[in-house]
Design a protein that fits this description.
The chain has about 260 residues and is α+β, with helices and mostly antiparallel strands. It has one domain: Mitochondrial biogenesis AIM24 (Double-stranded beta-helix, 4-Layer Sandwich). Helix content is about 20%, strand content about 40%. The protein is built from five helices and 19 strands. It has helices spanning about 60-70, 135-140, 200-205, 230-240, 250-260; strands spanning about 10, 20-25, 30, 35-40, 45-50, 75-85, 90-95, 100-105, 110-115, 120-125, 130-135, 150-155, 155-165, 165-170, 175-180, 185-190, 190-195, 210-215, 220-225. It has a six-stranded antiparallel sheet with strand order 5-6-3-10-13-8. A hairpin with a 5-residue loop joins strand 1 and strand 2 (about 20-25).
């Protein structure tokens, strides 16, 4: 018997996706603040402390659940959307940047998934959103984006968002995969996760990549994104502070004029 609410869903779009959740009467979905797009009549919205999975555990459990989210840099509160009517109703959430929404059926993934701290989008009520500290000192000090991660636990549906194209890898026992720490989205809890130094003075100084990468050893499944939001943001900032040079081109000067820059 499932403990989490059983929700139906439909993912809409290709590059800027949104997800439509269909709720039966009295069913609830929880979501990150700011992800709401639209909802039908009879859907009620309620701000809750933490993830709602410990709603019957008293104020202390609620504060503890919410405090764990603060450690991952997330909001102290989440939003619950419930169907208070007598027919099926729908609520829709939007992805925050170009990429894909990944549906995760926790009942088919042994009840637990580890994911990047900003990947969670929404989930069926009852799914617990906590933190996962990496146990090794080297991972903690040098892990960067991969140090403090979220863990999603339960037997319902959860949805995470990632940038660019999503690649799924199934690792056999003992099989290792090396990944840029920012490109790692999620993995099943049986995976052995660690951080390794790239090595080599030339690689460190001139390689153009990070000096650490994540190593994941099977068995288990891994989800990888081609465009981490940190990489996208750094490119946008670099282009935003770069002033074009005409280089003898008429179009270059025209471009500056259209941008409001002097020629």
């Amino acid at each position: 018997m499932k403990l989490n609410h059983e929700i139906d869903y439909k993912i809409i779009g290709e590059e800027m996706q949104c997800i439509e959740i269909e709720l039966d009467p009295n069913e609830t979905v929880i979501a990150e603040p700011g992800s709401f797009m639209m909802m039908e009549q009879d859907i009620t919205m309620n701000t809750i402390l933490g993830d709602g999975s410990s709603a019957e555990g008293g104020l202390f459990n609620k504060l503890f659940s919410a405090g764990k989210r603060l450690l991952t840099g997330e909001n102290l509160f989440m939003t619950a959307y419930s169907n208070s009517g007598y027919e099926k109703k729908r609520v829709t959430f939007a992805s925050p940047y170009p990429g894909k929404i990944i549906p995760l059926d926790l009942s088919e993934l042994n009840g637990k998934i580890i994911c990047q701290k900003d990947a969670f989008l929404c989930a069926a009520k009852g799914v617990s959103i906590g933190i996962e500290f990496q146990k090794k000192l080297g991972t903690g000090i040098f892990g960067g984006e991969g140090f403090i991660m979220q863990k999603l636990e339960g037997d319902g549906m959860a949805f995470v968002h990632a940038g660019g194209t999503i690649v799924e890898k199934v690792l056999k026992p003992g099989q290792m995969l090396k990944i840029d720490t920012g490109c790692l989205v999620a993995f099943t809890y049986q995976i052995n996760y660690n951080i390794e130094f790239v090595g080599g003075i030339k690689n460190t100084l001139f390689g153009g990549e990070g000096i650490f990468y994540a190593t994941l050893t099977g068995p288990g499944k891994v989800w990888i994104q081609s465009l981490p939001i940190s990489r996208l943001a750094s490119r946008i900032i670099s282009y935003g502070t770069y002033k074009r040079k005409e280089e003898g081109s008429i179009l270059g000067g025209l471009g500056n004029m259209l941008d409001g820059d002097g020629v």
